[in-house]
Design brief:
Length: about 130
């Protein structure tokens, strides 16, 4: 039991290290879809990693004049002005999660459009066959 607990703890810690190595890429929105989803789900439930992410924002944007990432919206600008990095991190996590959902929806829609196109092509093909042999 003890060794199992210990092993879980080590595994959790490894996961945190992995996530914390991705903080910069996440903040710059350069992680892949799957990594972003994993990052959001981990950081949302892990106070340690959330703290690290917040620290990253404070060090990068709070303590310097570095401009916010290109995709920053008016909320991020406001939270930076208010020096409210807790809200900033919360906002960015929700924003990225919404972007992932929108992407997934757009992928489904384009797949559907592709299928409809394919169906129309097949229909045309069969119609041509039928009319040729009537
Ligand atoms: Zn963590």
């Amino acid at each position: 039991m003890r060794s199992k607990q210990r092993r879980n703890k080590v595994r959790t810690h490894d996961r945190c290290k992995e996530m914390q190595a991705n903080i910069e890429a996440f903040a710059e929105n350069s992680l892949g879809r799957e990594e972003t989803a994993l990052f959001i789900s981990h950081v949302s439930g892990c106070p340690d990693c959330r703290d690290e992410l917040q620290t990253y924002y404070i060090v990068k944007y709070g303590l310097t004049d570095a401009p916010l990432p290109e995709d920053a919206d008016e909320y991020e600008v406001k939270y930076l002005k208010d020096y409210n990095f807790h809200r900033m991190v919360e906002h960015v996590l929700v924003k990225r999660a919404n972007e992932l959902e929108t992407d997934a929806f757009e992928t489904k829609v384009s797949y559907l459009v592709y299928l409809v196109g394919l169906f129309v092509c097949l229909l045309t093909f069969f119609a041509m066959l039928v009319f040729e042999y009537v």
